[in-house]
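Hey L., structure's done. Input below.
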Amino acid sequence: MIGRLGRLFKALSPHLAQPDDDWALAELQVEEVSLYKAMDRRDREHAVKVAKRLLERYPDAPGYVVRAALLHDSGKASRPYRAWERILSSLWCPNVAIEPLRKNFYGAWQVRKHHPIYGARKILDLEVAALVREHHLPKSVWAVRLHEADREF
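Output:
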């Protein structure tokens, strides 16, 4: 409960998010940097926490897994970060079509539901893209570990 309240407060106060961008950028491949930088600072902070938690638990994690952790929510950058849309769409999200991506609240539902696919489409490394694509419905061992680290924040 405390964690959820903290996330709510941070969603409404973006200046509180302090992503460790220097660390993240050192981990990413050159072609992935723009995807990371396009993410809202709140999403970047979350991504860094997930990646670092993954490394705490699995210090032998391959580099592509760490990069997937840093980019797992990159598909959310398909739309501007609107706190109330994020909050409301997390409370209820119907099944929505993946395309075309819309601008109204329907678009917020689309991003909530399909951001793993939106992000994976932009990633060149097939291993990273596969983990990003399945991070909500993990099938592989590393996707399960990524999902577990993601659920903590």
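The chain has a mean pLDDT of 94. The first helix runs from residue 2 to 12.

-- N.
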